[in-house]
Amino acid sequence: MKIEMRLFSGRRNPSWHLAPEDVLDFQAAVRKLVRVSGPLELPEHLGYCGMAISNEDQSQPWAEIVVYHELVVVRFRNRVDYLSDDDRIVENLLLETARDHVKDGVIESIRVDSEATGAS
Known about the structure:
Layout: E1 2-5, E2 15-17, H1 20-31, E3 34-36, E4 51-54, E5 62-68, E6 71-76, E7 80-84, H2 89-97, H3 104-116
Antiparallel strand pairs: 1-2, 1-4, 3-7, 4-5, 5-6, 6-7
């Protein structure tokens, strides 16, 4: 699975692949989330707008997952599911995998931004 942190406008966004053990943790965390009614809008502003997870395994039914604070959007070929992650388990898991690819200050600012905007 390839992760792209949607962070910059006009520059290449940081991206990386999840290690096999992280893939299993990610999949388990997403499976535990509760579906909510949608559609819910993801931010479209300058700065951090979430992380997009591209499915490179055609045996999986989903095409893309976007994680932004407490919201997880799963795009399948024929539908979109909206999931709630009140404790931001999925985002925090992905932020930990970003440590070799993104500066610690960026990761911490994402965590602070979510607290400042009222996210859990």
